Amino acid sequence: MKIIILNESKAPDPLNNVEKRCAATPSSAQRLVKKGATLLLEAGAGVHSGYSDKEYKDVGVTVIDDVNDALSTADMLVAVNKPTDAQLALMKKGAIVVGHLDPFFQQSLVESIAEKGLTAISVEMIPRSSRAQKMDALSSQASLAGYVMVMQAANQLPSILPMMMTPSGTIKPAKVFIIGAGVAGLQAIATAKRLGANVLAYDPRPVLAAPVESLGGKFLKIDIGETGQTKDGYAKELTDEQKAKQQEAQRDAIADSDIVITTAQLFGRKPPVLISKDTLALMKPGSVVVDMAATSGGNVEGSVAGETVEVNGVKVIGNGYWSQYVAKAATDMYANNIYNLVDEFFDDETKTFGLNLEDDILAGCVITHDGNITNDMLNNAYKGA
What we know:
Rossmann fold; 13 helices; seven-stranded mixed beta sheet; 2 domains; alpha/beta; eight-stranded mixed beta sheet
């Protein structure tokens, strides 16, 4: 089985972001080589994560300068994001493509992959189950995002997070309000609390009050009627009336906060707007808001994808690409996710990736196979159902 690892730093995305993560580390690559896989790494793929080409060579990886020459013989192409159309066009029918394919918002790409007869594994679609936890790239990157957002907010705040008692006087701890208590939100709560802030959090799913409080945060209770979550643990979309009640109840908490971090994202849909410009105007000058969803639509009115801007005297951070700010940690986590995925379905006798589409994990994350889009959720989304 020949696996190619892309160097995605060569081609900046539309927001001029240079991808710093890599889909393999020397350690994960060595484990795959030991299993009997042949690994080819595009030169420089690990440099931004602190891994030299030599480190990969030393564990049996072949480093190549021009990946295009090898794509036609690859059995699997592994990336962090989406391969280019030109790269996909060079791949043989039946080859496997793995990465963050953003399938709900990349219909034409998914249809193109299917038409080429390629099998696509979209890591965002890996189910949130006990067995799949070790492969869950969405959660591993979101956890790092929660940490990074707190650190970026702290760097922009003209004060400090912890209480400080000195002969010169006492500085009160910063007030941090985190909206959304999923993976990113919980890590943000833990990070802000460790840095000494007073942390308040809200999530429409009452079941998350316990995890918030276990991390030392206070849970803001808002009665907006019946809410819930999907079978994979994602928050269900609220009605317009529920959104209005939620925003009204959150207004005082936002106005009283030094830092607000929004982490609300809906699986397969555009994120909800949680904070209006009018609400931002209630915050103290110098306050900071971090919009985790800025690059996919935004939770905050006035946030700009890829930028930090000032709105009504409040700094709004919409930088996105959060885990790339800690590229080595992000690469280490993602590479382990990919290794665990390959290892789970690797046939030790034939040295191939076993595509058993009856398996619950592959049934969720394999989105194209044998010329068809195989995921029912995607097919319904594309039809507007």
